Structure formats: C-alpha cells, structure tokens
Amino acid sequence: MTVQVEIAKRVDNDLVVAFQRLIPQLSKSSPAPTKEQLESIVASDSSHILLAKVDDVIVGSLTLVIFHIPTGVRAWIEDVVVDADARGKGVGEALNKFALAEAKRQGATTVDLTSRPSREAANRLYQRLGFNARETNVYRYDV
Questions:
Q1: Helix (H/G/I), strand (E/B), else coil: 6
Q2: What does pTM read for this prediction?
Q3: For 15-39, what is the mean pLDDT?
Q4: Residue 64 near residue 99, CB atoms below 8 Å
Q5: What are the φ and ψ backbone dihedral angles of 5, each rounded to 5 degrees?
Q6: Distance between CA 20 and CA 99 in Å, rounded?
Q7: Which of 28, 32, 33, 141 could form a disulfide with 37 if both were Cys (CB 3.0 to 4.6 A apart)?
C-alpha cells in the first residue's frame, strides 16, 4: 500500500465527506467541520491540513499549526486521525513524517503534540519517530 501525503489546497466534496467519516473516529463530542470551516483552515497561513491518500482516497488527516512567538518558530500537531480500515499500515507514520519535514522547512525549531495514554499505538509511533515525553502540565480553559 502506497501512502501519498499532501497539504490540502482547496476544499471539495471529497474532502468534506472524508472529514464526515474521519472526525467521528477521532472525537465523539466534536462534529465534523463544515465546508466553510474547512475553507477557513485551508486559507489560513498558520494551519495546514495534511491529507493521507491511498489510491486517491483520503484515509487520514493531520493538522499542522506553525506559529511565530518571541522565542522562535514553533509547530503543533493536532487532530491526527487515520481511518479504522487503514490503521497499522503506515498512514500515521507518513502523515507525521510529512508534518515534521514541513515544520522544519518552515523554520520551526520544535514540534509538540499531545496524545491520550490510552492511544497506545499512537504513543509508540510518536516515540519511534523521536518525540520525547515532556515533564509538563497541560492545562485547558474552556471558554
């Protein structure tokens, strides 16, 4: 199985339908984004939707956010999801390697992500790719 990864440049029906299929596999509490929401992300200079395709079918996605702060350029990986039928076949690895290369290309000096401990396969992948667990507290404020 050959996995192709690309940055989404436009929003079409295939992309909308793919997110309608993928997002429920990622989060039971978040609805799939609308076409308008996807267009806003794709148009953003800092957010990049990476798409993994097999035989021109979207089987996974990752959002890479690159941002400038006073201490440098940083990157963050969010909303990594691989279709259940494609898991264990290198899709997540391909998405993450592409994201790391793109972050480096854009000048980021670090790439961060979070992953629930229950996502054992994902955590093994991140460690295999060279991510290190950090001693930190992650806080969230719901607005």
A1: strand
A2: 0.94
A3: 97
A4: yes
A5: -120, 135
A6: 22
A7: 33
CA atoms of 34 and 12, how far apart (whole Å)? 11
Candidates 44, 34, 32; CA nearest to 7 is 44
Give the three-class secondary structure for 120: helix
Q: Would you give the distance in Å from CA 36 to the centre of its chain?
A: 19
86: DSSP letter: G
Q: Give the pLDDT of residue 1.
A: 80
What's the rounded mean pLDDT across residues 10-20?
97
Contacts of 81 (CB under 8 A, 6+ apart): 22, 23, 25, 26, 60, 61, 62
CB 80 within 8 A of CB 96: yes
